[in-house]
Specification:
The chain is built from 4 helices and 8 strands. The chain is α+β, with helices and mostly antiparallel strands and 180 residues long.
Length: 180
């Protein structure tokens, strides 16, 4: 049995959302689509230029478009992470952060329990969809976009974290994403 009583900080909330934005199936799909949008637009422009007979500077345009596409590819991920941070700051400014800072999580043989100031949840381990480990903590996804966030500070040491992950793996039989 494991029990954790802790406070989630704004940084830990942002860390989870950044992880989710980059590593979730939806986040990966969004990154791929955005990655392909800029080169596709440039390719369409080149095809339009060639088909209309405007081939002046076509090689120069192709090189310029390739350079823009390369820069786009380099800044896309940082822009996405910046967007997560800015959205969180805007939510905070409006007083609408979508998480409870004080959390109590308990894990027994049959269920996991989350208790906070606004909610109390009793959930079967079978409801967990994904287990992810990041440098900032452990995320137990119970829906596509929602997870129980366990920052690294809740574990006394790496051995305790490993024991917890083994316990969760045995209860769910889910792979642990982010562990070699």
């Amino acid at each position: 049995m494991f029990e954790f009583d802790y406070t989630i900080t704004e940084k830990e909330y942002i860390d989870f959302n950044c992880y989710h934005a980059i590593h979730s199936p939806a986040g990966k799909k969004t990154l791929l689509i955005l990655f392909l949008v800029m080169p596709a637009i440039f390719l369409i422009q080149l095809i339009f230029d060639v088909s209309s007979g405007s081939t002046e500077y076509i090689v120069g345009k192709a090189v310029l478009f390739a350079a823009y596409s390369g820069v786009w590819a380099l800044i896309l991920k940082p822009l996405m992470l910046l967007s997560v941070r800015v959205n969180t700051l805007l939510l905070k400014k409006n007083g609408k952060l979508p998480y409870d800072s004080q959390v109590e999580l308990k894990f027994d043989e049959e269920f996991l329990y989350e208790k906070s100031s606004l909610t109390e949840i009793k959930m079967s381990y079978a409801k967990l969809e994904r287990i992810a480990v990041d440098k900032a903590g452990v995320y137990l996804y119970h829906t596509v976009m929602s997870a129980f966030v366990l920052p690294n500070k809740v574990f006394a040491n790496e051995a305790r974290k490993y024991d917890f992950l083994q316990f969760i793996h045995k209860k769910t039989n889910l792979p642990i994403v982010g562990i070699l």
